[in-house]
Amino acid sequence: MKNRKYILFILAFILIITIPKSKILKNIQNDIIYMKENETIPFEKNRNTTYTISNSGIVSINENKIIALKEGHTVITLETNTNKSLIDVYVVSLDNIMPRYDLYVGETLTLYLSTLSHNEFIWEVNDKEIIEIINNTIIARNSGTATVTLTLKENPNISKSIKINVISNLANKLIDNALNEEGYHEGENNYTKYGKWYGLPNSEWCAMFVSWVANKSNIPTNVIPKFASVREGKKFFENQGRYFDKKNYIPQKGDIIFFLNGISHTGIVTKVENGKVYTIEGNSSNKVAQRSYSLNDTLITGYGNPSY
Questions:
Q1: Do residues 279 and 172 touch, judged by C-beta distance below 8 A?
Q2: Please, what is the average pLDDT of the chain?
Q3: CATH class of the domain defined by 169-304
Q4: CA-CA distance, 249 to 40, in Å (whole number)?
Q5: 40 pLDDT exceeds 90?
Q6: Architecture of the 100-167 domain
Q7: Whole-angstrom distance, CA of residue 15 vs CA of residue 218
Q8: Which of 65, 100, 134, 233 could form a disulfide with 163 if both were Cys (CB 3.0 to 4.6 A apart)?
């Protein structure tokens, strides 16, 4: 019986030492890489190493480089006769996040980071009185402008700064009340209810429309004046240091827009998106109407930014 056990032991030992080395792999090693879209990093392997990519649409390997093609996740498997390694590659893009957002006080904005979760980023705010961040949601607390910076913990080169402009609820009321007037058409001989309210019932009425809406929204005249002359409205904001030429300024919701040297027409900015400014204007083709313009439209002179 003892001799039989001894013979089995010898046979097992012979089998172990005769198994081809290519069949004996060391423990699998794992690594994680975070890359930006279009980023290239060095990739070194010896001639005995083979590799596969689980999703070749995310990254490619060219000579001794890994090239990030588009946002997503893939796995590179490296294998030799005796070793196997897995490299998780995350290609991160923050291009879906705009550089600027306008929010009203109390409004929230959730930023979606499709590849990674929010807690894999460092979130920094330069003014916590204006905005608060909970998870990946920005909460507008007080009017003003703040900057949010997102930085990937594992790769500080992947970062983005976002300007958050928080607008007073007075601006919100101004826009809502103005939009409620859309479609109002002047009567005979330029007659409008806005002119009647002002005391000039049969006069050009774009400026009086702005004044009427501001009054309806309970906005003080030291914020938006009561004016019938476009020139006087522009001068008011200039005197307050709150008039901005279009070349050096991105308009905000609730701004007062001025056209043609700031003396011929005016209106209210309702939003700014994709290189365009959207407005609601009185006396636009004899009625209250919404309009939109390129930010560099030659008709636009500049903007008054009320101190809501």
A1: no
A2: 88
A3: alpha beta
A4: 36
A5: yes
A6: Sandwich (2.60)
A7: 93
A8: 100
